[in-house]
Amino acid sequence: MDVLDLARFQYAATTIFHFLFVPLSIGTIFIVAIMETLYVVKKKQIYLDMAKFWGKIFLLSFAIGVVTGILQEFQFGMNWSEYSRFVGDVFGAPLAIEALLAFFMESTFIGIWIFGREKLPKWVIAFSAWMVSIGTLLSAFWILAANSFMQHPVGIEIVDGKPVLTDFMALIKNGQLWVEFPHVVLGALATGGLLVGGISAYKLLKKQNIEFFRKSLNIAMIVSLISGIGIAFSGHSQAQYLMETQPMKMAASEALWEDSGDPASWAIIADMDTEEMKNNWSIEIPYLLSVLAYNDFEGSVEGMKTLQATYEKLYGEGVNYIPPVKTVFWSFRIMAGLGGLMVIAAMLALFFNKKNKLNSMPWLLKALIWMIPMPFIANTAGWIMTEIGRQPWTVMGLFTTAQSVSPNVTAGDLLFSNIVFCGSYLILGGIMVYMVIRVVKKDPYGQVDVEEDVDLLSKEAFGK
């Protein structure tokens, strides 16, 4: 592998691993804040115990997320120095605000939330939990403001071949940000919800602390269901925005080589021949691509061949402007398919939990356990589509990935740093899994009240 390929591999590994923990932190602290609020409002000890229990998992994910974020910053300086020089004037503002405002806000209120519990009123602790949650959202907002500039550059002038920020508000008003931010946040809430729901299902399957984990599961599944439905709508908004700003990504996500007919059909699956630039066969749903692109049953979509010719006129010939089609196509379908599966799982769990039948349905509890990794896979697939679908650009229309790589780094340097980074990720990932398992295995109250749980089970299963 050459320098560019190794640098790309390290960027992918760093970003994907870091993004396993970011949505988990956002989602779990949101659920914990709900539990803290329920404790204030209902004054029931069980909600405080729930907040403490699930708060441990949030703190673990937050800690690992901070460490992986630092590693991600290092690889920008090491491998992508030309990119850093190119976008430094633009990226400096949102990234500085993220560090100075959002991160310090999170850290401050985490301290109050953890260490002030025995000293401060319970409403202050609940408020602190919500401020931590808001801090995670603000952190995501400013990071996505920077990423949205990469997708759709705004608010700049090109001076001496580099973008100079002339309108800071344009970064905040960037349309890409306002379709990307809700989608990412809702995905994060679904991640937290399905993790809490899956662990709760495991404990219910083991017949441990039934009331505690039934309530936990109910809150988690409500969050998962609402966010899952929101993901579908926000994803639709993103698709329509892509038609305006990144039509090549949209065409690649549909394996659309030639211009579509009118109306345009959406391919469920396709056998793509990327060398011949055609699909050998595909299974399509009529009208659906027109609906996705225009909210209308009419309308055609430009294919990748047409867009390649357009891009050659805009940006110059001799460059392949078509991204890796198979990767973009399948990552979109993995993301969308798992999103639909998550909504169905949440609906079933809420329905049968309301009817007090969930504990007598081990197949559904097992299914919820298997749902734990699904939002992580869906989030990863979404980011793969977002970043790879923009290739060959790092900053759309302004700077390519080939131009971004550090000029003095060698393949040997990158091979060594890849080994070190990936080894670090394996260690950190192993620590995270081990610590979460330790938390889950421990009873929230220190012991399992078997008689109480058996009594509750018999009431739910037999109505006695």
Name a few traits of the molecule.
464 residues; globular; disordered C terminus; mainly alpha; 6 strands
Radius of gyration: 24 Å
Note the overall shape: globular
Report how far the terminal alpha carbons are from each other. 67 Å
Q: Please indicate the count of domains.
A: 2
Helix content: over 70%
Overall description:
By secondary structure, this protein is mostly helical. It folds into two domains: 21-65 and 76-246 and 323-414 and 430-462, no CATH class; 247-319, no CATH class. The chain contains 16 helices and six strands. It has helices spanning 3-42, 45-79, 81-115, 122-151, 168-173, 175-205, 210-245, 247-253, 288-294, 304-315, 325-354, 362-370, 374-388, 401-404, 411-441, 450-462, and strands at residues 156-159, 162-165, 266-273, 278-285, 393-395, 399-400. Helix 1 (3-42) packs across helix 13 (374-388), helix 1 (3-42) runs parallel beside helix 15 (411-441) and helix 2 (45-79) packs antiparallel against helix 15 (411-441).
Write the layout of secondary structure elements.
Layout lengths: L2 H40 L2 H35 L1 H35 L6 H30 L4 E4 L2 E4 L2 H6 L1 H31 L4 H36 L1 H7 L12 E8 L4 E8 L2 H7 L9 H12 L9 H30 L7 H9 L3 H15 L4 E3 L3 E2 H4 L6 H31 L8 H13 L2
Antiparallel strand pairs: 1-2, 3-4, 5-6
Helix pairs in contact: 1-2, 1-4, 1-6, 1-13, 1-15, 2-15, 3-4, 4-6, 6-7, 6-12, 6-13, 7-8, 7-11, 11-12, 11-13
Summarize, please.
The chain is mainly alpha-helical and 464 residues long.
